[in-house]
Amino acid sequence: MIRILSLKPNVTREDALKHFTGTLNPAKWFHGPVRSIAELYIPFRLFEVKVVNRAREESHIFGVDATQGVLDPYQFPVRPADADLMSLQTRNVLPAALDANEAKARLLAKVRRLVFARGFFRLRDVRFDAIEIPEPICVPYWVGFRGIEGRVRISVLDAVRRRAEGAKARRLIEDWLHSQVVV
Predict the structure, then answer these.
(1) Which three-class secondary structure state does DSSP give residue 99?
(2) pTM attached to this predicted model
(3) How many Å apart are CA 32 and CA 50, to the nearest integer?
(4) 150 φ, ψ to 5°?
(5) Cα Dmax for the chain
(6) Are the C-beta atoms of 63 and 80 separated by less than 8 Å?
(7) Potential cystine with 142: which of 26, 59, 126, 157 (Cβ 3.0-4.6 Å)?
(8) What is the pLDDT of residues 160-179, one digit of tens each?
(9) Domain locations in the chain?
(10) Using an 8 Å Cβ cutoff, are 67 and 97 in contact?
(11) Cβ contacts of 4 within 8 Å, gap of 6 or more
């Protein structure tokens, strides 16, 4: 078991089960009924990102997954307070594989795309910088396991933002699950 610091979830086990088994969830028709659900934690490195455009400076708190840096950035309105966090022990945590420099580079590339997508023509002398917030945190997710005839498919629900995750999160979790199989 690993001790982690995690954001507090906004979705209970019962809420997650309702989400995965609900009548509006098309996955049950294509991939079968839910067989099990589990809590899972993905580590994130937090950065304070400063964007300077002309003389105007904006500062935001972003998190980038510390596993592979492939998930969309997690944006926070302010730095998570102690009341928003909890400490726990679990086996269900993906390992952090990215060092701080690689995580920073991946995050800045994603933030650049976000800023340029908002309005390329309004940008002048734009500069980006990121300062790491030392304490990494984990984000809780619910994983639903479905199956028909020996095939297992997973669905992922962000337990903080209450939203279904897509292929990037599923692939990240599937890769981790495959690496845990003991032969």
Answers:
(1) coil
(2) 0.88
(3) 46
(4) 80, 0
(5) 61
(6) no
(7) 157
(8) 999 999 999 999 999 999 88
(9) 2-180
(10) yes
(11) 41, 43, 87, 88, 89, 90, 93, 138
